[in-house]
Write a structure and sequence with these properties.
Elements: H1 45-57, H2 61-73, H3 77-89, H4 97-109, H5 113-125, H6 133-145, H7 149-161, H8 169-181, H9 185-197, H10 205-216, H11 221-233, H12 241-252, H13 257-275, H14 279-291, H15 299-310, H16 315-327, H17 335-347, H18 351-365, H19 369-384, H20 388-395, H21 397-404, H22 408-419, H23 428-440, H24 444-456, E1 458-462, E2 465-469, H25 473-485, H26 489-499, H27 509-521, H28 528-549, E3 584-586, E4 589-591, E5 596-598, E6 605-607
Antiparallel strand pairs: 1-2, 3-4, 5-6
Helix pairs in contact: 1-2, 2-3, 3-4, 4-5, 5-6, 6-7, 7-8, 8-9, 9-10, 10-11, 11-12, 12-13, 13-14, 14-15, 15-16, 16-17, 17-18, 18-19, 19-20, 21-22, 22-23, 22-24, 23-24, 24-25, 25-26, 26-27, 27-28
């Protein structure tokens, strides 16, 4: 039931690279100089773990295990978790559930919730430990309360069955919802089944379809099969055997014989309709060729069959051909034909076509009052025919009215809505339009959201085609700076990482150091390692360049230790430079064991060696 298919966290094979700088010194009078043992970086659990990740990325699991064990002995929780995973799965080492339990327990003791969740799996199945369902429930509860989605799903499952806890459908529903919203496919599927059957509350077919679809789109074979059943029977949606065939085929591709049997039955029926030149059969064969349902993918054949159905005024086929004309799928692009076919489908009362036509009015008209009024007519007609997207759009109407009147919060709300996918289709043009207006009014959250949008790019899709906006980190930069200057820690982190990105004309390591340190002082040090790596690269380059050009005086046979002048560090505004620059040239000599940092956060420099 629960954890057999659960995901133990995967190793980040890229990891953190530990940079070791070789010390090279100019020789005079036959003498040579090298660093002593003090130049070796401090050994920590984190550094050992990073070196282990590097070895594992190079397929040296044995070496990685040794380093992970040393790191774990120092109490580093990620190393404990990784060792548990390797013993559990037999990755580079023999499967040993008892050892896995030992390492997961140590990771849990050091506060890692994923280790607690994984240890719960072992107690649930009795692997490496004596089976104890109550202990599994205890471990999963602790991890679930800290947001581990797998643990939330499994705890919900225990409440559903009454294993290790008293059976409680209401509590089961609560944890399944938590897991579903966290994106766990198994949790989404189980939540859908609870809504479908009224377990823990009233039956809600719409919610059942919603969450089953969420799980199916993540590739869960059982969810794909259930969604096929829902589509074929009309459970919570309009009955559509073509849509059912699509989901049954996807599930069958994952070796589900029951799904293949269901697909074959529908396929036989719809192919017979095609032989009789019925529109639904033609539309089905178009889907077969477009998506490769038992046939080779052939967009040209798909489009030709869809045209046959559209010629019979099949509204679904008309909207599909509009999409083909707009995107150039199986044919040349033709925005006029796309618009005409969508309008034909809309005039036949097809709600999705009415909604799409409304989007076109909004997009072409730039969200002016006049263009939006035409769009609203389409949305209302679509909503009257049950279109959920149109209903959601109409629910935003008060925000549209206030946003056009200059209300910054309404502009921000619309920008958020169109920049994510929880409610409506993600729309780059609409999101950037409204976020830009809010940002112009100096709304802090709008600065960060607009920066992220510009940095990642996106699409705007209407019935006349798709416009793709490439990522533009340079355009995002000023908005990141605005948010960072207002103290938004996430913006400080993302700005620091952006400023050390290679291959750009805006790289600025010194500014990146400042923002990374400021974010760290504000409680988020996630940019430190990224920027530190670039600092190390710069120091290595300076070392190489300096060694190749330096020529010492003949009588220069000693090292001088010059203190860094007392002055503001200029990197953290006096709040403490957390990034270290290991290795410095002092009076022409390389000292590999030095680094700069602020002294007690007072803005002065101090040299250590």
């Amino acid at each position: 039931m629960h954890p057999e298919g659960m995901r133990l966290d995967r190793l980040n094979l890229l990891g953190l690279l530990l940079t070791l700088l070789a010390c090279a010194c100019a020789s005079t009078g036959g003498d040579s100089y090298s660093d002593d043992e003090s130049s070796i970086p401090e050994v920590t659990g984190a550094s050992l773990f990073a070196r282990g990740q590097t070895l594992e990325s190079q397929s040296n699991q044995a070496g990685a295990v040794e380093l992970y064990a040393q790191s774990a002995d120092l109490g580093y929780a990620p190393a404990c978790k990784r060792l548990g995973e390797m013993h559990y799965h037999g990755q580079g080492i023999a499967v040993d559930h008892a050892a896995a339990a030992k390492w997961f327990a140590l990771g849990a003791a050091h506060g890692d919730p994923v280790s607690s969740s994984n240890l719960g799996i072992l107690y649930y199945f009795g692997r490496g430990v004596e089976r104890d369902l109550a202990r599994a429930a205890e471990l999963w509860r602790g991890a679930a309360e800290k947001g581990v989605a797998d643990a939330q799903t499994n705890l919900g499952g225990l409440y559903f069955t009454g294993e290790g806890v008293a059976q409680d459908y209401t509590e089961a529903l609560h944890w399944m919802r938590e897991a579903a919203f966290a994106g766990d496919a198994v949790g989404q599927k189980k939540l859908a089944l609870m809504y479908a059957n009224g377990w823990g509350g009233e039956t809600d077919r719409g919610q059942a379809v919603h969450w089953m679809h969420a799980a199916a789109t993540q590739g869960d074979a059982e969810a794909e099969h259930y969604l096929g059943i829902y589509a074929n029977s009309g459970f919570g949606m309009e009955a559509d055997p073509i849509d059912a065939a699509r989901w049954f085929w996807k599930a069958a591709a994952q070796s589900n014989p029951e799904s293949r049997e269901a697909f074959d039955a529908i396929d036989q029926t719809l192919r017979a309709e095609y032989e009789r030149a019925e529109a639904r059969g033609q539309r089905y064969m178009a889907t077969v060729y477009f998506e490769g349902l038992g046939e080779s993918v052939d967009s040209w054949m798909g489009f030709r069959n869809m045209l046959l159905a559209a010629a019979q005024d099949d509204p679904k086929a008309l909207l599909a051909t509009a999409h083909c004309w707009a995107e150039g799928i199986g044919t040349e692009k033709d925005a006029d034909r796309a618009m005409k076919d969508c309008l034909r489908a809309a005039n036949l009362g097809y709600a999705p076509a009415l909604y799409e036509y409304g989007l076109m009015f909004d997009d072409l008209g730039g969200y002016t009052r006049e263009s939006h009024a035409e769009a609203v007519k389409c949305y209302r007609a679509a909503a009257d025919r049950g279109d959920a997207n149109a209903k959601s759009m109409l629910a935003l109407e008060p925000d549209f009215e206030r946003a056009r009147g200059g209300n910054a919060q309404a502009q921000l709300d619309l920008g958020i809505c169109f920049s994510q996918t929880e409610i409506l289709r993600r729309d780059f043009a609409a999101a950037s339009h409204w976020l830009g207006l809010a940002s112009a009014q100096d709304v802090t959250d709008a600065h960060l959201r607009l920066a992220r949008l510009l940095a990642t790019g996106g699409d705007t899709v209407t019935v006349i085609g798709r416009r793709t906006y490439a990522p533009d980190p340079g355009a995002a930069l000023p908005y990141y700076r605005k948010a960072a200057e207002y103290g938004v820690v996430a913006a400080q982190v993302e700005l620091a990482k952006l400023l050390v990105r290679s291959g750009t004309d805006f790289t600025n390591l010194d500014e990146a150091i400042a923002w990374a340190n400021l974010a760290s002082n504000n409680g988020d040090d996630s940019a430190i390692d990224v920027v530190q790596a670039r600092v190390n690269d710069r120091r290595a380059y300076e070392l190489s360049a300096s060694v190749s050009t330096y020529s010492a005086d003949e009588d220069d046979d000693v090292y001088y230790s010059d203190p860094i002048p007392d002055s503001p560090c200029g990197r953290c505004g006096g709040h403490g430079v957390l990034i270290r620059e290991r290795g410095h040239f002092i009076n022409g000599h390389w000292w590999g064991d030095t680094y700069t940092t602020c002294l007690e956060c007072n803005g002065t420099g101090s040299l250590w060696h």
